[in-house]
Amino acid sequence: MSGISYFLLKTYQKRTSDINLWDMDPAGRFAFAGTLKEGDLVVMEGGTSSYNFARELMLHTPAEVIVLNPGKLHIIYESQCKTDKQDAVKLARYVRDTNRENWVTLQVPSKDETDLRSVLNSYVAAKEARTRRINQLHAIFSQNGYPMLKKSDLASNDNRLAAIDACLDIDSVAYDLAITAESAASACEANIELYKDMMRKALLKRPKETIIWMSIPGIGLITAASLVAYTGDCSRFYTPAQLRNYIALVPKIDQSGTRCVIGRTSTFGCKPVRRNIIQGALSIEKLKSDCPLKQAYMSLREQGRKRQLIGVKIANKMITIGWTLLRKGELYNGFGDYSLLRRKLNEAGLGAIDCSMFNELN
Length: 362
Description:
Elements: H1 6-13, H2 26-35, E1 41-45, H3 48-60, E2 64-68, H4 74-77, H5 84-97, H6 111-143, H7 157-167, H8 173-204, H9 207-214, H10 221-231, H11 240-247, E3 251-256, E4 259-265, H12 271-283, H13 292-302, H14 307-328, H15 339-347
Parallel strand pairs: 1-2
Antiparallel strand pairs: 3-4
Helix pairs in contact: 6-8, 6-10, 7-8, 8-10, 9-10, 10-12, 11-14, 12-14, 13-14
């Protein structure tokens, strides 16, 4: 029941006595939905379970459903009491006392977008788990007299097994620990590939957004998947600035009276997209072909700007270009032709994507 308004559930429980509305199984959700009527307001914090429940209520009830941004609900996350009951009461008071225009609402993503977000989260978790296992292996080798082995030497299954056989005694505890860590790392790598396949299947259902984003240099499978999952078709962002603010690519601004201080780039935003788009922006330096984005990157580097700042600035340009292209239904043409895009789609395993809407690719 986490994230769902306890206050509202308590109120509506009085309307029915045959079903326990505290149970959030299908029967309990169905019973709760049956109590809602025109003019009712259901408020909940954003989250995977909340999104699913909100979609059910919006589809099958006449009630108005509002999902609030949990990261901006100071009334909850600054509270010392963290029970669902207290959180729900705070939500009810928030919507009662706050002007509707100031509600920190979130758009409810589609089922496909929610599923893709779950895949991306699982992918990141698998990558982090693999890194932990590689670090564990590196520590085992270091403890047994082989600190010269780099993590890059342990990047593949074959290299790891070869290093274990060459450096560790087969009868030692270190050998057994290394084999266990290697097996776990290989399992993580297998899961990573499975998650990539899931992303490909999801992106094949969203050809327009996928192809447009991937036409921009620096954006590959993972970045395109995160953009589609968290921004959709960008229709809810009326300007590129709104999209950049959502991703957290804008500076912090501190205003008080006539005082206005522009600080460093904000990190409060959509972290999955922010992380990937900045990595993509930094990869533009390695492009063999020339394009306006690479020229902008090299210009900033010649000015002596720090690498991370360059990444943020180029990411801003990429996001602005992507938003504009989505509105116009066009592809990025900074290379003069689309041979790089075709190659990127094939390398990403998206060669079968429907390109019929873009005459340039036919």
